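Entry 14. Ran structure prediction on the chain below.
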Amino acid sequence: MSDVRYDKDWLFFCQTAFMMLTQLTPPKIILDTDPGGDDALALLWLLSLEIRGLAELVAITTVEGNVDARLTFNNACELLQLVHLNHITVGRGMVKPNPEVGDASFIHGTDGLGNLAATLPACHLQFEKATASEEILIDKLNQFPGEITLICLAPLTNLAAAEKHSPGILKKAREIIIMGGAFTVPGNVTPQAEFNIAYDPEAAAIVFNSREDLVILSLDITRSLIFTPKMAQEIAQIMPKSAIAQFIVSLCQSMTKTSLLFRETQGIKGFLVHDAVTIAYRFYPEMLQFCRGQVHVETAGNWTKGQTLMDRRHQAKIEANAWVATQVDAANLLAALVEDLKKLVEYYQPK
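Output, structure tokens:
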């Protein structure tokens, strides 16, 4: 640790001073994720806010999705090791493959991180001995009722399991932010369904029925969020030899290759950072516009399983369960992402 500018006492002093000056308390956050290339970038964005005292990451709850549960757990641990924040609790997701949908390793690499996991610091935690993700959710929501924001980047398996084991527990979250669904655009795993919802539609249905103020950030807005190699290089210029910078550049290169292969970015060199929009919503809310609606998840259709549906007819509606994003300021969102990741790289520059 002697080769990086990382002093916990100094960090604590700076965070305390910031809070005293602004009279603000950083939001408590649990990140539910299945890293995942865009998950990794969203996590690093959140950690860039954590080190500056702008967020308190209470835990990471991993889940099976982009790759299997053991890999998503290891990836989260390794990313925390990369930024020297391995004190943050990481939960293990249940092993629950979906043979109908399959994983997304063809996009994210066999390890979930563009086949770069071996370049990261090794995870010293054992999957089998880690606390189950749903147990962490129940424990922390009971410990901090009304304080924790759940940011969900993955299939909603963990949240549904917590709700089933402890009915009403999700109402104890301050807010639930979900990257998932597709309303007016095609899905990305079927013509109608987005991956996070399609992977476990029954879990999504449970979560969508759990409260009336979900925040849903769907493919309708995330398909304009293209993170390019030029952006990655701009971050790396702060400190080219930084392990964090090198990882971001390499991840972008790998994800760009598969994104172009599967025509995800309209031929633009880059990859879609779907999950980053959740961080933008929580910390840069002026970048998004919303409508109120009642969102349902199709769980039984032969062609539409996993589809998210919202009644857009101009007639009186008695109930609503969500705020659904309809517009995003993509240019400024990506600019904020780049600038905050620069701060993360700069923070760990050598003395």
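The radius of gyration is 19 Å. Will compare against last week's run tomorrow.
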